[in-house]
Amino acid sequence: MEITVRGLWTMLHGMGFGALYLLACSGALVELYRFTTSAAPIGATSSEERFLKFYLILMVVLAWVAVLTGAYVIYPWYRAVPPVGTSDLALFPQRLLTSNPATSGWHSLGMEWKEHVAWFVPISITMAAAIFIRYGRELKNHRNLRTAVLTFTAASFVAAGIAGFFGAMINKYAPVQGGHTIQLSHGDEK
Amino acid sequence: MNTPGSVPSKTVSAIPNGSGAAAILAAGVGCFVLAILALAGDKSTAIKNSLNFYKPTGPLSGVTTTAILIWLLIWGILEWRWRKEKILAGRINVATFILLGLSILLTFPPIVDLF
């Protein structure tokens, strides 16, 4: 069992940071709603509030690491230009996708949308976290701020979902691969 | 403490909403600037080349770096101006949600192709 360095980075970006962010989003939405609506339990403790602040900061870190690794580690491998005369495009995912009409849409629609819409995620969640850290349970008394925090957290979930879906599909049709091979385990001989 | 049958008193926040409104509007503007730069880079070769801050990543590096700097700058200015103010946050929300909606639309390739 082995994986290439590029494959490992892609897995970390998508499944490590991106998927974890998506999972965290549902929890954040529920907790933000619970904490900030007027119907929220009065007994919400300061330790619960501290936990949610820490949770949101972790989401901010995940979101920024996801977009930065995507844009500055994986995307250069994805958009690499093959030398003239290259016939095997396996190491050039963008060119591999656009070389076939059946897969070109994954680049022209999928990657073109994903590479931009993904950046709304860290902007949105940074804003939501900053407001919650500043106001905490006081958000109960600021209906408009609360609406914006919940809307932007939901928007970040949608944007991360779009980026995650297209990332997974693009990697299915034209996986980012290459670099050193890391041996994970030796298979048994039959 | 509320007794059964009593009307809960409306709590007034001790923290003005200006700081929150600043963060919200700045986030909307940041997303919108990113979308506009992406669109401009797609339509103009000169802009595309000028946004190529880091060659391996291409114009995406310039689009995102510029948008993030503008977002943080606007956030800082609004925070400085509004942090002690009570702002009409409803209007800020409407403007921000419009900017966010437009941002998502303007990054969607079939809509980008209409320009």
Mind explaining what this structure looks like?
Chain A is built from 6 helices and 2 strands. With 190 residues, chain A is mainly α. Chain A has one domain (2-80, 96-183). A two-stranded antiparallel ribbon of chain A has the order 1-2. Chain A is elongated. The two termini of chain A are 15 Å apart. The relative contact order of chain A is 0.20. The mean pLDDT of chain A is 90. Chain B is an all-alpha fold and 115 residues long. Chain B has one domain (18-112). Chain B has helices at residues 18-43, 45-50, 59-82, 89-107, 109-112. Chain B starts with 17 loop residues before the first helix and ends with a helix. In chain B, 36% of the residues are buried. Classes of the chains: A mainly alpha (190), B mainly alpha (115). The A-B interface holds A 67, 71-72, 75-76, 79, 108-109, 112-113, 115-117, 119-120, 123-124, 126-127, 130-131, 134-135, 138, 140-142, 144-145, 147-148, 151-152, 155, 159 and B 11-15, 17, 19-21, 23-24, 26-27, 30-31, 34-35, 38, 54, 56-58, 60-61, 63-64, 67-68, 71, 89-90, 92-93, 96-97, 100, 103-104, 107-110, 112.
